[in-house]
Structure prediction request, 298 residues.
Amino acid sequence: MTLNEYLNLKPSELKQAINEFPIAWIPLGSLEWHSLHLPLGTDGLKAEAMLRNCAEKFGKGVFFPCRYWSGIDTMKFPYTHEVPKRGEIKFFKRTLEQLYGMGFRYVIILTGHYPTSIVKILQKATQWFMKKHNDAFAIGIPEYYLLADIGYFGDHAAKWETDIMLHFYPDLVDLDILPDNYEHIQRVKELGIMGKDPKIYSNAKNGEKAVNLFTQRMIELINEVVERQNSKLIINMYEAHKKKVKELIDLKNLDPAMDVLGMEEKKDFLKQAKWMIVDRSKGKFEEKSINKEEEEVD
Ligand SMILES: [Zn+2]
Prediction:
């Protein structure tokens, strides 16, 4: 069966697709700097390709266009778009409600953009939705939620994002453009790479493995939810990931966390934290004046 693309459907075709099986697939991206070697659309390109893989294997449902604009908490690097967090939870609650109104009973949202804020908002909105309707189910995660056991906790323009991009879009990746032997903090500050050095660690085979494992686990989870009609399966998956993150951050043994973050020395934690705090305080004045204008328009 070919997947139904929302953008191409006429109303009668959408109705038929929902009647056949009421599942909506929604990828989320951003317009964000992903270092020198990856395209600015990386988050959405990656989320769409991974989710499409799942949707095609599942063989049913309606595939929605990827949301590229409206990235919240994007990194302060050139050519990057950002909107305030305000309104984001409403956006997802309303989206879920409207999809329910159309007849969808399963909504799968995959975010390729990873700030903690968006992950929390997705979990809040999907849990709210499932509490409200006991005949509807929604999953809202970044792909690494199903891949922590292979050491994938989500990075930025580093090993894992590059692996996945090398698998799906080798022609859009240029590892040669990256300098050699950059220290961790140099990669963070100058290149916007947060995680393991892609120049050393990335390859398409790793990306393929991660994508296949993700697809398999996502399909298993959806099948189980459909069969057992139980939202606990989704909530337990959210909780299981939080537990894995807690286990990773062991103050007595920082080596596993340092490995995931691509840090070479303990002082890299401090250097990165300092950079993020100083950087975030920059540009505050500009934001304030924009917020004031927004309020005037409201
Ligand atoms: Zn990204």
